[in-house]
Amino acid sequence: MAQFVSEALTASAETIDTGGLGRGEPPLPKDFAWRDERLAVREVVRTWRSTTTDRGDTYLARHWYELALADGRIAVVYFDRKAHRGQARWWLYTIAAGGTEDGG
Fold this sequence. Notes:
Number of domains: 1
Strand content: over 45%
């Protein structure tokens, strides 16, 4: 079962893939710092996006990633496109021992 976390992550400067930049996606970091742990990304299981509506217009709000971590756990993280300068952009939504998650 997934543990709901909803805490900010610190992204490493190294990225796994910058190919999504042309599609408006953020570069996915190779690992994240969370609490006193390093969450190393082994594989991207799936991705999706969520939107928000403001005054009748729809905007892309978050890029979601279900990640298989190097230690076997599964993490659902998101990149918050609406974060202001100085605010966290990467967030850990849930973390689980293994399997797949429903995140959005």
